[in-house]
């Protein structure tokens, strides 16, 4: 089995209301990169049929929700270099606080809910 180079064995697939805005959010909050070759639109030329962003080498697939494919969100755990900075960028990009920043035995962490209903657990390693 040969997996495409931009893919991993397991990847989340989100059905979103506002898929284009999800791209903007992940770029601002998590420095995501859009995988241009995987960005496909419906026949209307506006609605995202399939798209992918990569964050730190991990891919998130997503599409605009439809009447056949209802919104499906996720809880996502993300390691970042600086949880405080990433938390601020996420909040500034429209996320809301689920859990305030704190030091835990596994790192500096917080929880946010993005504007699309996904929960992100943001963590950086404490050295």
Description:
- The protein is of the alpha+beta class and 127 residues long.
- The chain has one domain (13-124): 2,3-Dihydroxybiphenyl 1,2-Dioxygenase, domain 1 (Roll), CATH 3.10.180.
- The chain is 17% helix and 39% strand.
- It contains two helices and nine strands.
- Strands 1, 2, 3, 4 and 5 form a five-stranded mixed beta sheet that branches. A four-stranded mixed beta sheet has the order 6-9-8-7, covered by helices on one side.
- Strand 7 and strand 8 form a beta hairpin.
- Helix 1 packs antiparallel against helix 2 (83-92).
- The model has no long low-confidence stretch (mean pLDDT 95).
Biggest β-sheet strands, sense, barrel: 5 strands, mixed
Give the class-level CATH name. Alpha Beta
CATH 2nd-level architecture = Roll
Supply the number of structural domains.
1
Alpha-beta classification: alpha+beta
Query: Which series of helices and strands comes N to C?
Result: EHEEEEEHEEE
The parts where pLDDT drops under 50 for at least 5 residues are none
Quaternary assembly? single chain
CATH superfamily: 2,3-Dihydroxybiphenyl 1,2-Dioxygenase, domain 1
CATH topology: 2,3-Dihydroxybiphenyl 1,2-Dioxygenase, domain 1
The total beta strand count reads 9
Average pLDDT for all residues: 95
Measure the end-to-end span: 38 Å
Number of helices: 2
- Radius of gyration, in angstroms, nearest whole number: 15 Å
How much helicity do the residues have? 10-25%
Report the portion of residues in β strands. Answer: 35-45%
- What overall form do the CA principal axes indicate? globular
Protein name: VOC family protein
InterPro entries: Glyas_Bleomycin-R_OHBP_Dase, Glyas_Fos-R_dOase_dom
Pfam family, one: Glyoxalase
């Amino acid at each position: 089995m040969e997996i495409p180079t931009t893919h991993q064995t397991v990847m989340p697939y989100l059905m979103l209301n506002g898929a284009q805005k999800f791209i903007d959010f992940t770029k601002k909050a998590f420095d995501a990169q859009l995988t241009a070759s995987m960005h496909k639109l419906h026949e209307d030329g506006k609605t995202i049929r399939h798209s992918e962003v990569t964050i730190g080498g991990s891919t998130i697939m997503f599409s605009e929700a439809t009447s056949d494919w209802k919104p499906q969100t996720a809880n996502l755990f993300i390691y970042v270099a600086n949880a405080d900075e990433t938390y601020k960028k996420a909040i500034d990009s429209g996320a809301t606080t689920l859990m305030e920043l704190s030091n835990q035995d596994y790192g500096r962490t917080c929880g946010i809910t993005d504007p699309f209903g996904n929960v992100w657990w943001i963590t950086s390693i404490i050295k």
